[in-house]
Structures are given as structure tokens and as C-alpha cells.
Amino acid sequence: MDKLSRRKLLAGxxxxxxxxxxxxxxxxxxxxxxxxxxxxxHAGAGEGSHGGGAEGPTFRKGAAVDHGANGFDPSELVRxxxxxxxxxxxxxxxxxxxxxxxEDKEIEVAPGVHYPAWTYNGRVPGPTLRCREGELLRVHFVxxxxxxxxxxxxxxxxxxxxxxxxxxxxxxxxxxxxxxEFDARPFGVHLYHCHAAPLAEHxxxxxxxxxxxxxxxxxxxxxELVMVMNGFNTNFxxxxxxxxAVNTVAFxxxxxxxxxxxxxxxxxxxxxxxxxxxxxxxxxHGNFFNHFPTGTSLTPIEYTDTILQGQAQRAILExxxxxxxxxMFHAHKxxxxxxxxxxxxxxxxxxxxxxGAADYCDLGELETPGA
Length: 371
What we know:
Layout: H1 6-10, H2 15-25, E1 33-35, E2 57-59, H3 67-70, H4 74-77, E3 85-88, E4 94-110, E5 113-120, E6 129-132, E7 136-143, E8 152-153, E9 177-183, E10 188-193, H5 199-204, E11 208-214, E12 223-232, E13 243-246, H6 252-255, E14 258-260, E15 266-272, E16 280-284, E17 289-293, E18 302-304, E19 306-309, E20 314-319, E21 325-330, H7 334-338, E22 342-347, H8 355-361
């Protein structure tokens, strides 16, 4: 089977062509993605264009990922925070503990497109670990994978707790375990990932997750969402990715929009875990947000609708939606969006609710201006 680059997938100018390419990446996998309601019925509309505008890519009608088999559902993952187990020490300090297990697992990243992932606790991304500034953190790591792994946390900690080969516990072999212990600082949104070599492969396979440290006095109440931007190199050639997503499943939030309330604070924890591409981005339609890079300051640096992130960069974005309706969010990198990295926020209960995503998935015949 010939390798397919993402640019080759898009060369035909339609997501239908990309879908056909995706179906070839995994033996026996049928086309999972379509342009508009039916890529075959509407292939002539806008043929040869790059992307397709409103008639953009999404799941083909009736196609779905088996979230039960995956063991996680992006619609649940987006609001799931793992606070671990806590107890108060004699000193009065809070000790917070987690157990994370590395395991090899096949996951479905688009309907019919399966990927041999390496996971923390059976999911990609791994659990969103959450704690409060100043707590003592203890992470019990067990390696049930067929490969040696580690856990490296972004933050402040002793060298012995850095989770890199040759220092402290170093590489944890198959069947082995270790404990990482450090103070929760600084506050902000961080990440953790495996740091075994080859590092790119260990990250690309799925060994990463978000790590949030709340300020001692907390943050204002909001509807909080975690969005880990990622991708999957199904060719295993380290030449870009063939599938892109937020929280792993391509186009999931087009198929199942993220529901939020109108005129209520929304807080996004956005982490870029994408491997094999130097940059990623987050863009929202019809709105602006306050941007807090790394979340280590309580003062935003800008009010904008688009941010760029290199790998491991992250941010807190805060906004409110003043109108009902469906609002798209996506990577403002066309190839990434066309290959899975896009979704919708569904706001309120007004008459326009559901219209955007539904129309995006089901377009009628398009009229040609001047025809």
C-alpha cells in the first residue's frame, strides 16, 4: 500500500477525496468522512476548490466512532477533571495522589480509522490531572506497555522527579513502576507526557495529557472545558499527520457540538500536543476571548479570536457568548481543519440552535451565481 501524505489527500480539493485516502490507511476501513451530506451526490459542487467553505468536511451521515470500544467519549472528556485522591497530612498540608498506567491500545480516531496508540489509563489524551497551588502531589506510575516509558511534568520539581532517561527512576521498563512526587507550582495550565526516546513517537502515539494547577484562591466560576489539540500519523513515516482533532476523534464536535449557555462565562484550557507539525492554532467564529498564555498570570495579554501554539504551548481562554446559535471553532490552518480539527459550540435554546452544524452536515444543491 502506498503511503499517503495529507497534501496528497487534499490534492483533489474535496474532503471526499481525503476520506477515500483515509479509508486506505487502515486495511478494511471504509470511507469515514464526506463533503456535505453526500460526497458522491454533490461532488460536482465546488469541485477543485481547496476546502469547500460551508460545504466542508465532516463525518459521513450514519458513520460514527465506537466510543465504548475506545473507552472514552470526547463529549465527556471535554469536561472531565481528575482530582485524584486527597488526605490531609499531620502538618495540615494536602497530599493529592493519582495512579496512571501506561498501556498499548488500539483506538478509533475517525469512523473506521483505527490507530495503535500508547495510552495513559486507556485514553488519549490521558486524564486531565487537576490540583491546587501549594499541594504535595504524588503520581504512582505503572508501565503495562510493551515499551519502556516515563512521565515528565511541565512545572517546577527536583531533577530526580523529571521523568527523563538516566535521571532519578529514568526509563520504567515493562511491568515496572515508580512514584513522582513534587509540589504543585506554578499555577496555570500545563501538560505531562512520556520522555522516552524516540520522543516524537512516544508523544505521537498518545502519551500526553493536560495538567492544571489552580491558584490558591481559585478562579471565578465558569463552564470549564479541556481541549487538547492532537493528530495521528497513520503512515508512521513522521511526515505530518493524516488525521487532526481536538481530544482525539476527528470532527467529533461537528457531529456532537459542545453545548454552552448564553451570557455565561466559559473557560477553555487549550493544550497543543501535536507532533510532526511545527505549529497549531485555535480560532473561534463570531466571538473573541481573553487570552492567558500558560495561565500563569491572572491578567490576559490580549482580546482576540485566534492564537498560535507550538508543541507543548498552552493557554487559558475566557469568553461569553452573547447570542444563541452554533459557532464554529477550528485550527486556522486549512489542512488541519479539513482533516478533522474543527467543531461547533452550541449556544442557548433559541431558534437557531442546531442550525449551523446541521446545515454543515447536510447541504442541498448549490446555486452557481449568474447561472
